[in-house]
Amino acid sequence: MGILTAVAIYFVIWWTVLFVVLPIRMRSQADEGEIVLGTTHSAPARFSLGKVALYNTLVSTAVFAVFYLVTEVWGIGPGSFPHIVPGT
């Protein structure tokens, strides 16, 4: 795997994992009981983009490491699995 391919795959993994990490430990203004005028009750009470980015980067790096281990070190790819549809 080339460096550009690895960066592209990491980029896709990072953005995909972001949608998993975003709602973790999120408390809305309604949960806190402190709704600010002009905002919806489901808006986050306290949002830390830095923490979310850090957690996301850590999880994404672990997922990419597993992906790299499986595909590059162990050599498992799509051709390693038997054909699901007979006759193909």
Protein model, in words:
- The chain is mainly alpha-helical and 88 residues long.
- The chain has one domain (3-80).
- It is built from three helices and no strands.
- The chain has helices at 3-21, 29-32, 49-73.
- The protein is elongated and about 60 Å long.
- It starts with a helix and ends in a 15-residue tail after the last helix.
- The model has no long low-confidence stretch (mean pLDDT 88).
State the order of secondary-structure elements, H for helix, E for strand: HHH
> Largest sheet, described in full?
none
Query: How does the overall form come out from the CA principal axes?
Result: elongated
Rg value: 20 Å
> On the 0-100 scale, what is the average pLDDT?
88
Through-space gap between termini: 27 Å
Q: Classify the secondary structure makeup into a structural class.
A: mainly alpha
